[in-house]
Queue: 2 jobs
Job 1
Amino acid sequence: MSSTGQAPRSPMAPPRSFLWSRRIFLTLLAGFVLVPVYVMVSSSLKPLADVTGKFRWLPSGLTVRPYIDIWSTVPLARYFVNSLIVAGAATLCSVVIAVFSAYAVSRYNFRGKRVFTVTVLSTQMFPGILFLLPLFLLYVNIGNATGIALFGSRGGLILTYLTFSLPFSIWMLIGYFDSVPRDLDEAALVDGCGPIGALLRIVVPAATPGIVAVAVYAFMTAWGEVLFASVMTNDTTRTLAVGLQGYSTLNDVYWNQIMAASLVVSVPVVAGFLLLQRYLVAGLTAGAVK
Amino acid sequence: MTSTTASADPGERTARKGSPGAAREPRRTGRIRRIGLPYLLLLPALVLELLVHLVPMVIGIVMSFKELTQFYIRDWGAAPWSGLGNYRMSVDFDAPVGEALLHSFFVTVCFTLLSVGLCWLIGTTAAICMQDTFRGRGLLRALFLVPYALPVYAAVITWVFMFQHDNGLVNHVLHDQLHLTDKPSFWLIGDNSFIALLVVSVWKGWPFAFLIVMAGLQNIPRELYEAAALDGAGMWQQIRRITLPSLRSVNQVLVLVLFLWTFNDFNTPFVLFGKAAPEAADLISVHIYQASFVTWNFGTGSAMSVLLLLFLLVVTGVYLLLTSRGRKTADV
């Protein structure tokens, strides 16, 4: 597998008709993708008058004021930290659990294997709305019975989010582990490694692109979730997904601040994603797309 | 991840092998644990899936048979049974509740088919266009993945701004600059909201198709193209005869995943329209949310959810039966 990109298709030069259609299509598509990104960036640098009046492509004056004000209009820093803790912890747990599960399915034959994979995968198709209220009730009941605060806490949200990415992660890692030659970890077992040792020393390092891909996916899922974040958080545990709604008051919508805040919360994930996208394609190639 | 890579260095392994006690110990426990080990490895995933998905689903099914209004929410077990009442109400298409559900279902099906079709079409075309190397390809590829990487709320809120009636870009371009409309239109209420939702959904969703198809293209052996070129097949013929057929199994998974995600999507309509979506864009997730949390009838909301799940199960089952990949996946 080449990590640099796709295999070139044709040894001959593409015909003119193909080159022209390609040029037109890719230009239009780039425009479609870029316009909202441009609106986000340019509006975040506009004075308030520019975003409340008629739309203008170019700002009447550039200002960094929105970037200063976003932190005091709403407690953005706190939301940021909350999102970071929740998404980070959910990603870490989800990846570790998915690695163990995928290893079991990939390397062992056992009763109930098929039931397990089908069950876990089918949870992928549950609409979130289906278990929002039951989960809410369950967390409240567990809290009342044991004193463990799941509802309204970051812990509850972490627990919920890590299961969202789990099915896809397990599925992708099964494919990825299958592509790691079995001889490698069998050799490690003969050398005296335990099964876990073989997993951690041989399979995991060999499957790093797949694991990175899964981690990226898990982080993005948790960072972008809105529904559960808006029901299951309170003032102190609110995440960015909910906190961003605080920029519209009854009288004013601070669009320039909203755009600035959107940009600030997007930059870490987009940058991380673009840095790791090579792994993602490589991971998908071996995992999901067998 | 890097730490495990580092710990796999050969020096450490030889050191471990060198001490006889360390070598025998793992092998013995290994034999004992071999039988239970897979189950032990699966346990965390199983417990979590049970706790967060399956147990709530069972509770949800029980709730759908109860008359669960806000009076019983503190102690939902005490709510009176209503038998099939909630279901009867949900599928009574002559009464307001059932009629609204049926409408919402049709809107969701139309929306999902259009969105998945467009996402697939754009994603596949873009991936095929970018199969060969050309100048700026890496940059373009990174750019195309940006909508996928952006957090939903940040991306959709930007679209909300663009769709504003008075100060949005869309009306500015369509009305002020291109003079295509007589007066500025409303995009987030009324019939146009369906178009707005579709545009946002496609903008956000096609890069996933692009990503998967790009990954799929890497598996096509180069020799196939070389052989075809020798036989005199042009670029267009190569795409039709080699590229598209080779993507078949990838597409089967991709379409199913896109379908389930789009059909169940809550985040996009919720950020775009808020708690009550306009009628023309009343997707089923938001509809059920509204039935449960805004009108406070959790019993009916649960019944609707169960009906939705049954529908998805049937669709997925039929789809998996019809595709060869399904048989392969089920045999994992």
Job 2
Amino acid sequence: MSPKRKHSAAPSTAPLTNDPVLRSVSRAVFALVLLFALLLLWRGHNAPGGGFIAGLMTACALILHRMATGESALRLDPIRLLPWGLALSFGTGLVPYLLGKPYLKSDYGYIKTPLTGEFEWATALLFDLGVYLLVVGSSLAIAYALTEVNPQETVEGDE
Amino acid sequence: MTLAVFLPFLLSALAAWLGPRLGRRTGYVAALAFLPALLLAAPLVRQPGVEPALEVTRWVPDLGLELAFRGDGFSLLFAVLIGVIGTLASLYSVAYLSEWERFGRFYAYLLLFGGSMLGLVLSDNLLALFGFWEMTSVTSFLLIGLWHTRSAARDGAVKAFLVSALGGLGLLAAVALLSIAGGSSSLSGLDVEALRASPLFVPALLLTLLAAFTKSAQLPFHLWLPTAMEAPTPVSAFLHSATMVKAGVVLVAKLGLLFGTSPLWPGITVPLGLATLVWGAWLALRQTDLKALLAYSTVSQLGLLMSLYGLANPAGNFAATAHLLNHAAFKAALFFVVGIIDHETGTRELPQLGGLRRQLPVTFAVTLLAALSMAGLPPLGGFVSKELFFEAMLKQGPAWIAVAVLGSALTFAYTFRLLRVFLGAPRAPAGAQPHEAPLGLTLPAAGLAATALTFGLLPSSAEALTRTAQHALNFATFSGHLRLWHGVTPALLATLLTWGLGGLLVWQARRLESWQRRLTPRWNANSVYYSLLEAVNVLSSRLIARTQGLALPDQLRIMLTAAALIAGVGVLRAPQVFHPIGTLPLGVLPVAALLVTGAIGVLLARNRLTAVVVTGLTGFGSAAAFLAFRAPDLALTQLLVEAVTVILFLLAFRYLPGGRDLPRSPLRYGIDLLLAGLAGVGATLLVLSSVRFLAPPISPYYLVNSYTGGGGKNVVNVLLVDFRGFDTLGEITVVGIVALAILSLVRLGKRGHTPSDRLPPEGERP
């Protein structure tokens, strides 16, 4: 039942496109998108944003970079982010539990520094960071895995 | 007690980390984990029979689930037993395991197992008890399958897991029935009177027995235990002697106090236990592998324990607890000895070994003590507890004592078969230079054998230990004692008969062997297991072929029909759906037009790429709609999900064949049109129904409480990370698992490649 694939020798590592326009644009946009993603993560607690969205946006930026240059901007296997993200979210939730509050109950407060003025801290940010890492890891892992499939591999009987 | 249960779990994580760094020395760390369990002996020694201590730790109180550890005499005794054998097994493994073992895994699993076992015997909460019970199944699966490159180990692990998982399901049901009928999820808090009067009593009893029999390898579930010997020998000693397999015995002992009043309880356990005693011993006598012999001997001894605890009377409980201690001592010692023999000669095959007493005199002495205790010879512990066993069975009737004697005679016979490796002319495989094993291997075995001797020479010490369980198991009033010499009693006569019969079996060993070969049944529990497994596989693959082998369009038709039917019934039942049509905001009509255009565009697209891009149009349209309804969070999420989905689609489609239309008859066209229409109308009606609330909306609660409760002004985010944070945690777990699944699917058939080695080497990077 399963389609037979013609295996080709080496997996391709070349950029998917050789488009100079894409490469220049991605170089300019990459940092901006990443910065925006981090902003979304940071402000998520009080304004539209949050770990999930920020994670997706980061993944988009990294995929764009990968497409344009053929190189991963992330210097580690994205799948490795999964356990860390999960552990961070789980661990953040565990702290209030061990302190006798409900599991995952978040805490918050305010800090005043001369440099930034008053700003709010919330443990929810840590939880969100876990979500962020996990989403980045999963979507990148899937995208990279699909990118690494050699496009020359075709299903038999294809026209 | 809580510490005793948790320390192995904590140190397990540490051991996983230390394993690759410290190597075999991790075993010393592992041994430390059982220290608190050993310290539990203190309350036992100080004041036997005091009020049991209760330690409660919060877990999920809303579900009645808490970690309640109750230290009554029996639980503590058992916990100490686990601690002792666990410590010895850890120390023994330091000397036993080879240099290239994966220590991180080995000790982590060993400690996880020890911790679950401690939790199991100490738990007072029924749900927690079930949890620990299942954890022992999972961890023993990991331990048995430790050498997973060997198919026998995988097979043994799967078999052990399937059989004990079956029992686990039984236990779950039993626990549920018990807590419903008894009105409490705590073992000590059950309302015994209500429980006995309840119609759920008999089902709970039967299910409990199913669990106990599978775990303790009683007939016909004994098949998993011998294959479980694929685990490394220290693990076998731990699993077989003290713990895993005795979990079922513990269950029968503890719940016998509840169920014992029903004639069903002893009516099932005693005959089955005795049958297991005889059959296990018979099978043990047939083995040529020393470890297999010991494994079947464990099956047989568990049958003995089961029949005694199954009596659920003071005499049975007393005898069983005494034998439990003896069995742990001699069986662990024997496993350690077999490990030594394996270590020194490189084989465990009986026919290849002989006369080892010359090269291994110390090991021989140790084996002799442990083995004679197993055979029930004086002056060893096994003799004393076997007398009690005969006494208890004598009270049951002549048939019972006959079976008991037969089983014990077979035990006698296989013990001497085991000792044959030390007797006769020296024989060892070529190249093996057996000499005395290092102290690390000999000492644990010698210590246990000395215990077996102490239990026999000083029966009062064994009795003191046994009596610590007297309040927990309700045999405080029992007047019997452990003694070497009771005078000439019927039990002594039965013992003499056993020896005579056993001696006969040893003398006629050759004839017995040929008999056994002739009497081997054509099918056994193992073949039944394999044919069952085969049948289940065939059944499931046929079922899948029937239900999921259709072409994609056909499956889609089935799904759409089902969706239309379900939604249709829902809408018909709720006529108020049509009410809010007049109140629709008309401002979103342009967006709706965009969505419809996108949907029609997908239909018209001749090529996959176009189709995906146009599908994206509907997604972005929805985002616009969310914006129109003032839900920026949703809109943002929708936008990004849409973007990533389109990227992934495009990546996946690169290597699919071009789109082709399957030929469709006009009738098919008609059906498809109808289905599509119904699905569309159904979805619209469903959305409409959600516009009008049937119950007071819950959103004001979040609007009011999000800032004070979660400290955030973005209600959606606070909802995600605080109020419903547990859901989010579950969802991201699912996301992670999906990523792993896709990864393994994509990499299927491409072994040896990880993404990192597919990146260009350092020098070639731009």
